[in-house]
Amino acid sequence: MDSGFFSEILLPLSLGLLMFGMGLSLSVHDFEKILIFPRALIVGLSCQMLLLPVIAFVIALLSGFPPEIKVGFMIIAACPGGATSNLITYLLRGNVALSISMTMINSFLTLFSVPLILFLALSWFTGTSEIVTLPVWNTVRNIFLITILPVSTGVVLRYFFPILARTLERPGRVILPLLFALIYVMAVASSGETRMADIFNIMLSVAPLAFLLNLLGMLTGYTAARWLRYGKKVQITLSVEVGIQNSALAITIASSVIFLNNPIMAIPAMVYGLFTFITAILFGILIKRKFRFQSR
User: Fold this and answer.
1) Could you give the 3-state DSSP secondary structure of residue 147?
2) What is the Cα–Cα distance from 15 to 200, expressed in whole angstroms?
3) Among 121, 149, 170, 207, which is disulfide-ready with 74 (CB 3.0 to 4.6 Å)?
4) 248 burial class (0-12, 13-18, 19+ CB within 10 angstroms)?
5) For 259-275, how does the pLDDT look when each residue is reduced to its tens digit (9 = 90+)?
6) pLDDT grade for 137, boundaries at 50, 70 and 90
7) CA-CA distance, 86 to 27, in Å (whole number)?
8) For the chain, which residues make up each domain, given as ranges?
9) Helices (DSSP H) in the chain: which residue ranges?
């Protein structure tokens, strides 16, 4: 079957269903609390949009990689958030409303931050001054259709039909992530030939620093939440949101002909996307166990 059917139709559809399932677990009050007490939101966004690019820059600067790989690390840092972080927060029972709010806001902010960060990265590491812009209408449309609309629908359904929402939400917590994972695997499997064999050695050398960027991002979110004395839910949420970047968007920006058209720059994001789901789950479990130990 054509890979476009999985990646362009089934994958966004399954992601929308996941966001709908998350919406069933939320109420309007959850979002009201964030608007009334926005400190966690502001701190999380600051860590994502400001501290993470600095961390990526230091890692790239100190590495001995070619300029294209260094720019690749900056591309990861320029693409924070995404539906994957929402899913992980949901599975770990973090503050899903905060996670979704951060994703929606930083998705709009990336329209401005991505061109700026990439302009600076390309100027510093490659000596070029190429300006990269995201397609505004497509980005806004995707945010609305895949995130805002399904989440809002779930919240509204829970408000008017709470019993039905609880009935759907419980099995959906298990079924919907499995459905998304299955379709994602099918999309990758049907994509045909890949360059993985050609760049395997480079990927192996990039992996330790990609893991370091992931780990430092999670530690940054966790430390900020602990410093401000937030509880387990916010600690998990900020760790995941700051530590898990939108690798799919980073790969697109690096390799697509309408952006940088440089597959080498996509290597850090490709490696990064292979393990961050697992590391974020493990990091969240460690936070939970730490709270259990402290409560004894």
Assistant:
1) helix
2) 30
3) 121
4) middle
5) 777 778 888 888 888 78
6) low
7) 16
8) 3-191+198-295
9) 3-4, 11-24, 28-36, 39-46, 52-62, 67-78, 83-91, 96-125, 136-143, 149-160, 162-189, 200-227, 232-243, 247-255, 267-295
Pick the CATH number of 3-191+198-295 from 3.40.50.300, 2.60.120.10, 1.20.1530.20, 3.40.50.920: 1.20.1530.20
Which residue, among 155, 143, 140, has the nearest Cα to 20 in the 3D structure? 155
Q: Which structure tokens are listed for 57? A: 């820059």
Distance, CA of 190 to CA of 235 (rounded, Å): 37
Distance CA 80, CA 240 (A): 11
By the 10 Å C-beta count (0-12 exposed, 13-18 middle, 19+ buried), 104 is classed as middle
Model confidence at 229: pLDDT above 50: yes
Question: Which two three-digit tokens encode residue 153?
Answer: 């629908």
Separation between Cα atoms, residue 47 and residue 53, nearest integer Å: 9
Residues contacting residue 65 through CB under 8 Å, at least 6 positions apart: 205, 206, 209
